[in-house]
Amino acid sequence: MNSLWVFLFTIFVYTVVKTKEELNNRPIIGILTQEISYYLNETYPNQYHSYIAASYVKFVEGAGARAVPIWIGGNTLYYENILSKINGILWPGGSTYFSQKKGYADAGAKIYRIVKRINEEGQYFPIFGICLGFELLTYVAANRVAHTKPCSSNNQPLPLEFTRDYRESKLFKNAPLNVLRILSEQNVTANYHHLCVTKKALHNVDLTDEFHVLSLNHDENGLEFISTLEHKQFPFYGLQFHPEKNLYEWVIGKRIPHSINATIVSQYFANFFINEARKNFNEFGEQEEQRSLIYNYPVTYTALKKSSFQQCYMFKKSDRNNFF
Question: Could you confirm whether 196 is annotated as catalytic?
Fold first, then answer.
């Protein structure tokens, strides 16, 4: 009998230790930079090449990760190299055009092909797209066939209209009931977009069998659009709304939800994404990690210049010299 208990206890301890070892508790997230916006370039004339709103950096930091910038304009070799060292990638929202050469969409297309292959080979590697990043996800999955529809969902806080089988998703399967209740009943998702992906558009580019639509919403004119989805095979997730704004953006007049409940659901999405990244075990060498982290670059208090972002990391083209 004693030997049986020793055996069971050994199995229990091994399982607990093994489970802990199967998570990476020092995840690093790559955040894709974006062409400097028209407004930022007008405010800081011809000083910068690309930027990341600091709220996205804080979004991953607040869930227990660190961030490195992923440069636009890189070749495939650069993206292969950086993706072999980070644990997940965030595609942020913004206002750039997908047609710009060597820009946000070109980088996204290269990254998508590489990350898709990485997952096919058995390594877990998540992509998390927010707003424009959500649109980028379906755009590159559709082989860069444009399919968004003009819509009017600016300054529009909304509850999510969950689809019938949304609980069968990874994104919401284990979500606490209070989070789901808040999301479905309260105006806690911050929408700031003038382009939408509809169910019909997803069908037109043959992505219906590839992506699971988890929630819908309606813009100010009643147009139905997709607000959350995830890939059916790979850990790729898209939110049309901005969870990072609830936590870190404070511009007056934008109707950003800042209630306790809005904070709770935003933190849920951050935690979910970073927990997905913990399943990946890529790593930098120590010195390279220190050189690559976002902390090497200054952050600017752009709200003083009437920007919609409280702070931004703005990069010069020369910042990329040591990486290309």
Answer: no
